[in-house]
Amino acid sequence: MGNSKSTAGGQTTIPAKETYVWYRKFMMEYPSGLQTLHEFKTLLGLQGLNQKANQHVDQVYNTFDMNKDGFIDFVEFIAAVNLVVRGKIDQKLKWYFKLYDADGNGSIDKKELLNIFMTVQNLNGQQTLSPEEFTNLVFHNIDINHDGELTLEEFINGTEKDQDLLEIVSKSFDFSNVLKVICNGKQPDTGGGFLQTM
């Protein structure tokens, strides 16, 4: 235990003491040890969304549900928090790719990227570029073979090489407000850091 940080696959993990605090909070909120999609949406105040936004939230939830049993257990929850907070950029880009690849076929086409980015803008208000401008920028800058689809390799390599694009992609999936909601007991606008004393 203690306060030392361990690494798994080169990723710095949340120290054991903080993991214990997260565990207590998770179990107090979800005594069964499982969080449902409805509970996930309720926790984050994501009721009454339009169909596209609702599909995106479902997709985020499903990427965190690693064993695909329809629930997020504590291990999946802490892995998600760890990715969002301490994950390396290539790990985050792999996760973003999974979110963008709505049909799960291993590539992202323009329609998928456009739909997801429109939904993300509706959810978090990010307005740096219009969805069409963002989609065109991505495909112009990183679709190396110009086939209208991005592979995981193209997406990661291209995004890592283009700092402006990397910043836009990172900001579009800024989960700091989500983590504030979780940390502050469903009070997203009270401020405070992610790993504050709980």
**Distance N terminus to C terminus?**
18 Å
Proportion of strand residues: 5-15%
Note the main sheet: 2 strands, antiparallel
Tally of helical runs: 10
Overall shape: it is: globular
Uncertain runs with pLDDT below 50, 5 residues or more? 1-10, 186-198
Binned, the helix content reads: 55-70%
Rg for CA atoms: 17 Å
Overview of the molecule:
The protein contains 10 helices and 6 strands; from the N terminus they run ββαβααβααβααβααα. The protein has a two-stranded antiparallel ribbon. Strands 3-4 form a two-stranded antiparallel sheet. By secondary structure, it is mostly helical. The protein has helices at 16-29, 37-43, 51-64, 74-86, 89-100, 110-124, 131-142, 152-161, 163-172, 176-183, and strands spanning 7-8, 11-12, 34-35, 72-73, 107-109, 149-151. A hairpin with a 2-residue loop joins strand 1 (7-8) and strand 2. It is 58% helix and 7% strand. The two termini are 18 Å apart. It is globular and about 50 Å long.
What are the defining features of this structure?
6 strands, mainly alpha, 198 residues, globular, single chain, two-stranded antiparallel ribbon, 58% helix
Helix and strand arrangement:
Blueprint: E1 7-8, E2 11-12, H1 16-29, E3 34-35, H2 37-43, H3 51-64, E4 72-73, H4 74-86, H5 89-100, E5 107-109, H6 110-124, H7 131-142, E6 149-151, H8 152-161, H9 163-172, H10 176-183
Helix pairs in contact: 5-8, 6-7
